[in-house]
Amino acid sequence: MSQNIVLKKGLNIPIAGAADLRVSKSATPGVVAIQPSDFKGFIPRLLVKEGDRVLAGSPVLADKMHSEIIFASPVSGTVKEVVRGEKRKLLAVLIEDDRKNEYVDFGKIKAGDAAQVKESLLASGLWPFFVQRPYGILANPELTPKAIFVSAFDTAPLAADAQFCFADAVADIQAGINVLSKIAEVHVSLNAGISGDIFSNLSSCTLHSFKADKHPAGNVGVQISHVSPIRKDETVWTISLLGLAAIGKLARTGRYDVSRKVAVCGPASKDASYIQTVPGMPMSEVIPFCNIPVEEVRFISGSVLCGANAGKDGYLGFRDNQITLIREGYDKELLGWIRPVRCKQYSQDHSYFSWLMPKRKYNMDTNLHGGPRAFLMNDGYYAKVLPMDIYPVFLAKACLAGDIDKMEQFGIYEVLPEDLATCEFVDPSKNNIQDMIAQGIDLMLKEMA
Asked: Where residue 285 falls among pLDDT bands split at 50, 70, 90?
């Protein structure tokens, strides 16, 4: 294990509604969805039609650019509907669960070379768990990455507790590491502040210990920047603990099993806890967890900082194990920020007296309390919540300007939008910094292809 890497920058957002460490419900949805929008850089090709019978692990979609990359059904059942949008854009494939839990038998992954491992992962439909950096796109199976990185902890607001979620899956995670080590060196980042970390004895990988308790220290992009920064013409892959566990299950049982514990949390939740379910679960399954009228709730698949606004008619993302329920903030506040006392509002700048209660949790909503305006010209203001050696304001402006040379200079290869989410949160100018970074990445993909 490497020596401790100490990160002092960052910000923990004191939002209320953390999930209790218990499973309160086993959600067996009647319908699950496979959504192409869950995967950046994916052009879908439909492999099934309505009425087709599928098993858990049966191919449903394939990538037009890399036909060997497939997306499999998480349950057994029948293809209920192919949902299309404008210009017949494929939005989702809905599969009606027959509750029989019948699986395709892929056979256990045999120890072999990288090519054999890739072939097994592609055939099983688990390849979409890989994210390729730079740009955060689906990993290209034709490439060999410099390394594969895994974050074994999450510092996002109300994030699912990895020690609880994977307490019974350590053997699967180890099996997954054994498989991936055939492709490239695997790096696993641990939180030094966790006593008795269940991942501390993992082998066949390089362990890195991060002494940090502020977000975004748990982001794999931040960890990569301190272990082995991504340079131009370099490629690394990342995978979550969810993906590792699924690969381990495939290696040990030959089954495509992507079931998981999902944290249902947030200020608009009651009985915040965990549910056992599969990706693609309808958000309607968590409506009973809402403590306010459904019309006033934003259903977020993922973190409140960078998750997707799924809506009550949406679905759980493929790579997500957190659902955040938060109130839609439509109301306007009399006098706003000039009010002398705002004890129920959080400010990381100590603008309100709420800083006198450092342990208080806040019932935050989606209200921005203002609109976008000119950038604050002080890069250090944003850098203090970002433990990376980049200039966030200059990078965001380079993305807005479409200046590829400047984007390269200021670190576009090292970041994804989620890495700058804390900068967006503290931004007094209320700019959509994550959208700016995403816009820059899209330009890089277009121009550098």
From this structure: very high
Prediction pTM value:
0.94
Residues 6 or more apart from 247 whose CB is under 8 A from it? 109, 121, 126, 129, 175, 176, 179, 180, 239
Output DSSP code: residue 251: H
Q: 119: which 2 tokens?
A: 């072939």
CB 387 within 8 A of CB 9: yes
Q: Bridge partners of 260?
A: 277
What pLDDT is stored for residue 207 in this prediction? 96
Tens-digit pLDDT profile for residues 314-326: 999 999 999 999 9
Task: State the pLDDT at residue 115.
Answer: 92
Question: How does DSSP classify residue 267?
Answer: T
Residue with tokens 């950046």: 40
Q: Which residues pair with 83 in a beta bridge?
A: 92
Within 10 A of 298 (CB to CB), how many other CB atoms are there?
Answer: 20
430: its two tokens? 């209320």
Note whether 270 and 25 are within 8 A (CB): no
Buried residues in 341-358 as b, exposed as e (16+ CB within 10 A): ebeebbeeeeebebeeee
In this structure, are residues 247 and 256 in contact, taking their beta carbons and an 8 Å threshold? Answer: no
β-pairing, 59-63 with 44-46? antiparallel
| Residue 252, amino acid | R
Sheet holding 308-309, edge to edge: 23-26, 273-277, 260-265, 322-327, 297-301, 308-309
Q: Are strands 77-84 and 90-97 parallel, antiparallel or unpaired?
A: antiparallel
Rg (the chain; Cα; Å): 22
